[in-house]
Write a structure and sequence with these properties.
single chain; alpha+beta; GMP Synthetase, Chain A, domain 3; two-stranded antiparallel ribbon; 25% strand
Length: 116
């Protein structure tokens, strides 16, 4: 986490330039980037989850740590969760990401079964 803080501090000037050209929507407890590309961490986690949950009808991975990869928010909707309690669904996601989780500070998981 210290490395994350140092990285954020050292790139503050360039980040402000990006923010001027790419506005950020801020809501209590949630930051949404208005950039069109994902971070490397978001891409990596998305690939792992797509491989593990091929029937997922919706998948969104967001780095909510400001881009340093310390914390992610995952929204995944899959029929593979059908018949499982929420805690079991989250355990499946945690198991799929066991290698990636080791380097994270936190993870928010939101799972859902498609309504059909």
């Amino acid at each position: 986490m210290l490395a994350c803080k140092l990285s954020v501090t050292s790139t503050m000037t360039s980040a402000l330039r990006v923010l001027r050209s790419n506005p950020v929507v801020v809501m209590p407890g949630h930051v949404q980037r208005c950039l069109s590309t994902q971070t490397d961490g978001e891409d990596r986690i998305t690939k792992v989850l797509k491989d593990k949950f091929p029937l997922a009808s919706s998948l969104k991975v967001v780095d909510i740590s400001g881009g340093c990869g310390a914390m992610y928010e995952i929204h995944i909707e899959s029929s593979e969760f059908k018949g499982k309690r929420t805690v079991q669904q989250h355990q499946l996601v945690n198991q799929a990401l066991k290698d990636e989780i080791q380097g994270m500070h936190g993870l928010r998981i939101f799972t859902e079964v498609p309504k059909q």
